[in-house]
Amino acid sequence: MKPERISILLQALLLLVTVLALLETAHAQGTSARQVVTLEVLELNRIDINMTSLTLIIQDANAQAGTTVPAANSDGVLFWMTNGDNKKITVASNNATPRFELKLLAADVTPQAGVPVPEIIFDDTQTRDFITGVTKTSGRCQIRYTASAPVQAGVGREMYVITYTITGS
Amino acid sequence: MKKLATLFALAALSLLFVEESNAQATANQTVQLTVNAVYKISTSGNPGALTINNGTAGTDALTSVSDNSTTYNITQNVGNTVKVTAHLNSALPAGYTLSINLASTKGTSAGTVDISNATSGSAVDVVTGIGMGADANQTIGYTFSALASAGTLSSTNKTVTLTLTN
To answer: What percent of chain B has pLDDT over 90?
Structure first.
């Protein structure tokens, strides 16, 4: 194509754009006015716990059975919310070689919010599933810890940091 | 000679009368004035993107976001029962809510109005009882909220039409 024709074509296009812009401006003020609103919801995952520390004390024993009586606590409540697909909640302990035994169970999970796994025993630092099939909603459950100790473990104290994570399944 | 002078004086006087008569001639024009019904509404532009990026563990309702950065102007001479309606080009999916709030000094704002399901056939009133005259630079507020159970929403444009009507 010759340069003159290209120039004429560009001028015609410029004129067309100008006319369209003028028409749009004229349209902007009339019986109606329009606005374009851009909406977006990002993927959000939130998890929280109402009790950041607790103590389990084993202080009783069954003489006939020769065992200590486990200590339990279910005061903690775990809350979560997700609007993403295919989520689960995992749990992990920082205690690689526990001296005593700590178990965890999710109780009273919000209906339709997720499926709890059977009771977990923290015997290493491995990350384990805690609630699977977490749906796009908010949920909560009771956190039930049970501590037990064989008599031969003796007396003492140990600490666990338990981490709950909402993540992709 | 005296008679001739009198005759000239009379002639001059009659010419003066003729001149006076011409000075009082009139011409009439009929000017017809009409003011048609005028409805004008405009906005200052588009609001910023409304992006929901926060929520609370244990709560299905995510943290809503708002925009009050745009304004509208109206001029109308039709009456004191004029109103502004609002509608979307298409309804929002369930679980997402877009509300609008138009300030007004010439009329009565309906406050925060849910327009999520207001389409062209079901526009909702956002300002009513607007008096004749102009109302300039009135704030348009948008609030966008969503439920976690509705999932995420990719960036979506919705056209909001504000209509000045009787």
So the answer is: 83
**Residues B81, B165: Cα–Cα separation, whole Å:** 9
Mean pLDDT across chain A, nearest whole number?
A: 89
List the single range of A8-17, B37-46, B140-149 with lowest mean pLDDT.
Answer: A8-17
Tokens of B22: 């011409």
- Tell me the average pLDDT of chain B: 91
Q: How far is A27 from chain B (nearest CA, A)?
A: 9
Task: Tell me which chain B residues have a C-beta less than 8 angstroms from the C-beta of A24.
Answer: none
Provide the pLDDT for residue A70.
97
Q: Would the CB atoms of A83 and B162 count as touching at under 8 Å?
A: no
Q: Both ends of chain B: CA-CA distance in Å?
A: 86
The answer to whether B39 touches B84, Cβ cutoff 8 Å, is no
Quick one: how far is CA B125 from the chain centroid? 14
Q: Which residues of A100-133 are buried (b: 16+ CB within 10 A; e: fewer)?
A: bebbbbbeebbeebbebbeebebeeeeeebbbee
Distances in whole angstroms, Cα of residue A70 to Cα of each of A67, A100, A151, A159: 9, 11, 11, 16
Name chain A contacts of B123, Cβ cutoff 8 Å: none
Distance, in Å, from the CA atom of B48 to the CA atom of A40, rounded to the nearest integer, reads 11
pTM over 0.90: no
Least confident of A22-36, A94-108, B39-53: A22-36
Subunit contact B56:A39, Cβ cutoff 8 A: no
SS3 string, A6-47, reads: HHHHHHHHHHHHHHHHHHHHHHHCECEEEEEEEEEECCCEEE
pLDDT of residue A169: 82
Report the alpha-carbon distance of residue A135 to residue B151 in Å, rounded.
Answer: 10
